[in-house]
Amino acid sequence: MGLFRIFAPNKLIHIIPDMIILEKPYVSAPLVEFLEQRQLPVLRNDMANQLCAQGHRLNLLESDQFVAQYQQNGQLYAVSENALVWLYAQMPQSELVQKVKVLKDKAAFRRICQQIYPDFYYQEVEMSALRSIDPNSLPLPLVLKPSVGFLSVGVYIVRSKAEWQAALDDIDRNFARQCAVFPDTVVRSEMFVLEQFISGQEYAVDAYYDTNGQPHIINIFHHIFKNETDVSDRLYCMSKQIFEDNYPAFNQFCIDLNRALQLRNFPMHVEFRVDERTGHAIPIEVNPLRFAGMCLNDLTRHTCNMLPVQAYFDGTHPNYSTMWQGIENDTFSFVVLDKPYETTRAIDFERLKQRFHGVLEVRDIQNPAMSIWGFMFVRTALEHKAELHEILHNDLTEFMI
Known about the structure:
Dna Ligase, domain 1; 17 strands; four-stranded antiparallel sheet; 12 helices; eight-stranded antiparallel sheet; D-amino Acid Aminotransferase, Chain A, domain 1
């Protein structure tokens, strides 16, 4: 059996089993090492079996055992939203699934957010009806995206009638192929959401609610774009200034959200835009039961030596007053080395590393189903900040082999 964490809220002791679901497309090596050390219960599925076949010692539970143990007041984490397929099938009537579905459905989430942001514009449209909309009737600029989605799949920023037409054309050409990489619980093509475009900086936040419903923020990432129409995932940065400037607003949203949902023992990854006119932090979406995907959340290992999933299971978080001591002026970045769908060429990681002064780690993702060569973790001093601007705008073709 897995290890158990003991809470003592209100002088009552609760034994909470920590449980995890590993899924495609990627599981990071530090997470696997943590699971081997702790021997936490892991759902037996194709991904878990694949890792065991590679020699990893995981504490696997069959589906019925996993469900039974979770129902004993378990605490669950899912590496990827692909895990929602299993979760929906095995516990369809559970309170957990009902709350996950609300958060995953961008339209349903917007309805909840209207209690917090009553003036925010959105509407729901079936994909088949998108071409019947007169772009002259739309309050441009806006964002067009699937009601259920992941990363930047099917997301378009529309500022003009021409961009509206271009977005619809791209949906016709590419969206079905992009959706095919993910199950319907992660990306679904029937419904789209049109919502107000927030002009401002974008941030991604890893947080969890503890057993009392109190939110705890672990990571705050600045998602940096090339320009106002860019929706790629190339660069995420974190630093003392990024964290401290944004923590109050993001934490307040977590508090406000839980007045409506009453979440407990619940990890989540929240994306925000901070309106450049008003300074208000507006949530874009909440991704339930996980932290930042594609191992972005591992960046915290390089700032405060903390694996976020361990913090969630242990009921801890970084010490906000000391977490940046000694690294106050540095920027820590996660670089996504995205590749074109049509290419079969590889990338020269060693030559790419030479462009940076502070490469901490490189991960080669050898998965042809993913349009990614790999990831880089980088520590950048103030005098080398130009390196981040350069990699943001580099199409990487010079490093292809």
